[in-house]
């Protein structure tokens, strides 16, 4: 189950990208001012590919950590925690601006609103693979 949790962020990027890319404008809102208005923009397709590539890379690193036997279970747990968090945060860097722009039908009108919660949740996501990394599944010496 830890392995599944490590690939979910990349999967979420892939699913949203396949669903939204043809319907998103060329630019996504990427930064919001204190007043809540978008004041920074990023090209849609490059952001998707960077987020998908990076979250996939971190997913692969996490899977390697799980598959390569280790004598130190705590190192494995720490590694999947960090890799899971980074992968989820990278995924949210695509999903949040894409979703805010998609639901507003315009980068200029994109409202961050509740999508901000996804960024915060991504920072805690590593706890999931951490809790799912079983001591019994590790090779000990």
Automatic annotation (TrEMBL):
The keyword Transmembrane helix applies. It comes from the Bacteria. The chain crosses the membrane at residues 46-68, 80-100, 112-132. Keywords: Membrane, Transmembrane, Transmembrane helix. This is DUF1648 domain-containing protein. It comes from Microbacterium nanhaiense.
């Amino acid at each position: 189950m830890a392995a599944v949790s490590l690939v979910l962020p990349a999967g979420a990027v892939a699913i949203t990208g396949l669903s939204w890319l043809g319907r998103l404008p060329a630019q996504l809102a990427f930064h919001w001012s204190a007043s809540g208005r978008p004041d920074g923009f990023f090209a849609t397709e490059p952001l998707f590919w960077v987020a998908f590539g990076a979250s996939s890379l971190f997913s692969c690193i996490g899977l390697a950590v799980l598959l390569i036997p280790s004598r130190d279970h705590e190192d494995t747990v720490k590694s999947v925690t960090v890799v899971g968090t980074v992968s989820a945060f990278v995924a949210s860097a695509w999903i949040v601006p894409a979703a805010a722009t998609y639901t507003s039908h315009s980068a200029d009108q994109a409202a961050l609103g509740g999508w901000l919660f996804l960024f915060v949740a991504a920072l805690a996501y590593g706890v999931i693979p951490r809790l799912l990394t079983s001591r019994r599944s590790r090779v000990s010496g």
